[in-house]
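User: For my dataset I need records formatted as: sequence, then structure tokens, nothing else. Please produce one.
Assistant:
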Amino acid sequence: MVALLTAASYVELVGKYPKAAGAALYAQKAFKVPFLTFIIAFMVMCSGLSSASAAALAFSGDYMSELSAGALPPTLIAVAFVLILAAVNLRGVAESVKTNVVLTLVELSGLAIILGIGAYAVLTGGGEPSRLVEFESSGTGFALMTGVLGATALGFFAFVGFEDSVNMAEETKDPTRTFPAPSSSAWPSPAPSTSWWRWSPRSWSTPAPSPARTGRSSKWSRRAASSSLPSSSP
């Protein structure tokens, strides 16, 4: 649910402010407090560093240790992993996107294998579905917080992923189409007075701005009102 709320907020804001600044830009537009904007930008930078280092250490420790049987030092593998990813990003956006697609397919394949094993265990009677709702009440206080810490880490990585996605808005030709807003059938849309753009599966539409937003004269408002009246001709 936390990831869903975060995703919906990001896709709403990236269409209105398609800039490579993410949460820092949105906070600046909302509150206009430079110190708050700096703090948010600094925390986003720290989250990027910590997520990259966590991914590098997981790759060098958990994955490569199984393949190399401990022949290579994990620190060296982690540094090489970060340098390779940096080289791909510096090469170009298209190359980084293609690499990301390949890694995503690998990750989805692993998840599909795990889900298949779990389904097989349940269907053959080897699994215990009742354990899904069990709560371990024994152990130390730190052990009881393991589930909360795991959920927090998952939400943190989800936030970093959405932040990285909207930071690519300037690399797209049409950000409002590349990052579509949530459909009104799946997510409550804002009121018409506060909605700047809407998304439908067929086309994009932009509501006519009000005179207060555009500074148009009353002549424009009278013309718009007369055009919205039903015609008396058959």
